[in-house]
Structure formats: C-alpha cells, structure tokens
Design a protein that fits this description.
four-stranded antiparallel sheet; 6 helices; PyrdxlP-dep_Trfase_major (chains A, B); homodimer; pyridoxal phosphate (chains A, B); carbon-sulfur lyase activity (chains A, B); Aspartate Aminotransferase, domain 1; about 260 residues; Ethylene_sulfur-biosynth (chains A, B); 2 domains; transaminase activity (chains A, B)
Chain lengths: ~260, ~260
C-alpha cells in the first residue's frame, strides 16, 4: 500500500539488518517464528525512536515451543497458520497503546469498512472450539487441536528428514529442542515450511525443484541466495506424500547417476 | 486511503461540480442512483483527461427504473444494497480496459490478499438464486426477488408519504415514473433512503429528527444544507414501523400545538 499509493508518510527502508539511519523514526516488523526459516527472532535495529511490530502468525505450539508469554507493544496474530483458515482473512492484534489501537481500527474501517461477517462468525466458532479443547490440557487424555496438529507436523518432518538423510542435493536446518510453556515439555521445532539449502553443484534450488516437479519459492524472494528454497509443509496429505516421493526420486536418480 | 497515507499519486479535489482544473487528469466518481437522494446521475466534469467511475450500488430494479443497459468504461457493483448482504463485503467491477482491470486486481491483492472465501461462497450462492429467479420473469407467475423487494419498498414509501402528507415539518422529493427495461413497465423510483427536507422554521433537520428519537444523517455529511437529512428505508420491519410512528407523533404533536 505504501509503495502503490506512493505514501507521503512512510517509505520502505529495506532489510532491518542494514538499516542505520540513526535517530530517524522507523517501524520494524519482526516475524517470529520467521517465515521462511522457522527460527525465533527479536528486533535487530538499535534505536529509541522505532516502533516494533511482532508478527506472530507462526507462534503456535504445533510449530514451535512457546518459550515465553507474548508481551510486546504491538502484536499481530491470524487464524491463517493457526488453524489453516487463511481464506477467512481474519487476524487480530494485541496493542498496548490505546492511540495506536484506535489508529489501526480506523485504518481497517477506511480500507475495508470492516471484515466479512461470515468470516467473523466462522472465526469466533473456530476459536471457541480451540479454547474449549485446550481447557483440559494435561488433565483429560483426549488430544486437543494443537496436540493433533503437532503430531501431524512431527510425522511430516520425520518423513522429510528421512527422505533427505542420504540426499546429495539438499540439507535442512537443524532446530534446537526448547521448553514449551504450552505443553510443559521440551519440544521440537516443526516449522510450517521446509527451508531447503542445496549442496554444492546446484546453484538455483528452486529451479532444481522445478525439475523434480516440486513447486517451491526461491531464496531470492526472501532476500537471500538462490541456493535456498521454501516448501510448504502444510499441503494436503496426498500432495505432501507426492512431494516426498519426488524428493526420493531425485535422491535415487542421483545415486544411479541419472541426469535430472 | 488517499488521505490517510498522504498519497503521492492522488489528491482529493472535492465536489465534482466545482472542479475546474482544465486539462488536469482527474477521476470522477458518479454514484447513480445517487446516495442520498436517489436521482439518476451522469458525469459533470467537462474534460478529456478524466476517468469516470460509475458506482452502481443502487442501480437495481427494486429501487429505480433500469433505464438503459449499463455500458460505461468502469462500473462498480456490490451485493450490499442489491440483497442486503453488506456485511459480506463483496463487490465486483466491470471494466473495459484490461490494464485498468489488472491494476484494480493488483490493488485488491496488495491491500487484502483477496476477499474472504466464506463471503465468496455465500455471494456465489446468493447470485445464483437471484439469477434462477429472474430467468422466467414475465413467464412464470411467481414473484422473483426483485419483484418481492420492489413491492416491499413500494409499501414502505406509501406509508412514508402518507405519514408526511399533512406534515408541517418535512417534505419529500418527488421522483418521475420511468420506463424500466427489467420489468418492462413504467415504474416508480423507490430509493433506499428517504431524503427529507425540513420546512421553514426548522434549521437542522437531523437535530429535529433526534428530538423525535429518529436516527438519520444530516445534510452536512453530504455537502449540502442541514435542512436536509437522510433516513434509511431498509431497516427491519418493526424499526421501520416505529420510524413511521415517531414521524406521526411529530405531525400530531405540532397539530395540537405541542412544542417538540
């Protein structure tokens, strides 16, 4: 919006790591866990005049340990990656400063006169079901939504790591186990995306994936080297299995010396 | 959005009737039938460099005669006033220039990443039902949605005109009967809003309505004299009846010399 309307108020200043206009007011957006690599992030710009917006789209216990209570000044959440209802276009913000909260509400009113009622009704129902399921965590034996989702993610990550164990093409990030305040256990990080890094000899990871009929998103789109690419771990079950199959074909193919 | 982001591309230039920056490019928005007064409108700025956007939110046969096929370059429609599904936030545009259409699509993608799927599904269903009902207009006896709505609007307008027949406070616009291509008949204009004008002695129509416990919107909000006010004709049945009751109280009260 800033770019498309050539805003007189704001300007895109690029990567936060390289931002060094001392004393200038700024807004830093921290996506934690980070998309695409799933790591926990903190603000990186040093300066007193900035506002930091925490985007917690992926800060849910099926993906990552909840290591501390979210308590920042401006925090964004969405149902999108929490339950998969991205198409409902429902998010929410927790904001400490009343003036900022009012400005945000005004922006929503002006830009869209509010969010679809159908979506609001559905989101309220979905959140109700989630909360009901979580009330008895650790007390009742039945699996709540986050446990169910965590188990699903764990199975998928296991399949992926196994498929790439002997791969001569790709490596995967290793994530630390961390103590999760939600589950009360040390849990694995199971990101929503696989952040693949190609081994030597493959320069464009996404192009290489295309050759395997796997649709990813190249590192360049995330401001890094094309030896990286992002693949969704949230596809439908049969799509995910096909993705693993195609990765295995590559591994086997290379082992047999077939030129892919 | 233009104002809130201080756009470097566009600037609000005020009332189209007073716009006279010859040769400047401009965008004129024509709301026809007009909100609030229900009259048919055409572009008023003379100049070759302008784009005209027709907002046809109220161009539906329950409100107005469909006097000609809508055939402008850029036309906006919405389910909001067509069926009352304003909360679904669904509209559509018919645009002749492919480049403009693509820019509009891009804007929607950037500003909202698309519209709620729940709303899209509901809108598709609603539009399907409307179209099915209209297929046999004039052939089958059963009332389609637009006939049903037109009859409802006609009853409400009749009640309102009767309530104000002897009013010493308000007058109403008179609208011409026009030939409607949809119904094939000469039909009355039955706007979504009553555009009330106060008679001499009442300076602020909306304030006067407030005294009668009627919530309207004053003329100032529409750039005209406060002797005008807008009242929705689309409220729920019991609300509408209460509105008529309260208008009658005013008429009777004044007839009996009660100071309101």
């Amino acid at each position: 919006m800033i770019e498309i309307l050539r805003s007189g108020l704001y300007k895109w200043a690029g990567d936060a790591y390289t931002f060094n206009e001392d004393g200038q007011p700024y807004i830093e957006v921290v996506n934690s866990p980070n998309n695409p690599d799933g790591t926990h992030r903190e603000a990186v710009v040093n300066g007193g005049k900035g506002k930091v917006i925490y985007d917690f789209a992926y800060y849910w216990p099926q993906y990552t340990a909840i290591t501390s209570a979210a308590d920042h000044d401006i925090m964004l959440f969405t149902l999108s990656k929490c339950t998969g209802h991205a198409g409902s276009r429902i998010g929410w913000a927790l904001v400490k400063d009343k003036d900022i909260a009012e400005k945000m509400t005004e922006y929503i009113a002006i830009s869209s006169i509010g969010v679809s009622k159908e979506s609001q009704v559905r989101a309220a129902k979905v959140i109700g079901v989630l909360c009901d399921g979580c009330e008895n965590v650790g007390v009742v034996e039945s699996e709540n939504f986050f446990e169910f989702s965590r188990n699903l993610m764990a199975k998928r990550w296991q399949k992926l790591r196994e498929a790439l164990k002997h791969s001569e093409c790709f490596t995967l990030f290793k994530y630390p186990r961390e103590h999760c305040l939600f589950t009360g256990e040390f849990t694995k990080t199971l990101p929503a995306y696989a952040w693949l890094k190609c081994k030597e000899g493959i320069e464009d990871c996404n192009e290489f994936l295309s050759g395997l009929k796997i649709v990813g998103r190249g590192g360049k789109a995330f401001g890094v080297d094309p030896i990286f690419a992002r693949i969704s771990m949230l596809s439908k079950e049969d799509e995910f299995n096909q993705f693993i199959e195609r990765l295995l074909v590559a591994t086997r193919g290379l082992a047999m010396g077939i030129n892919l």
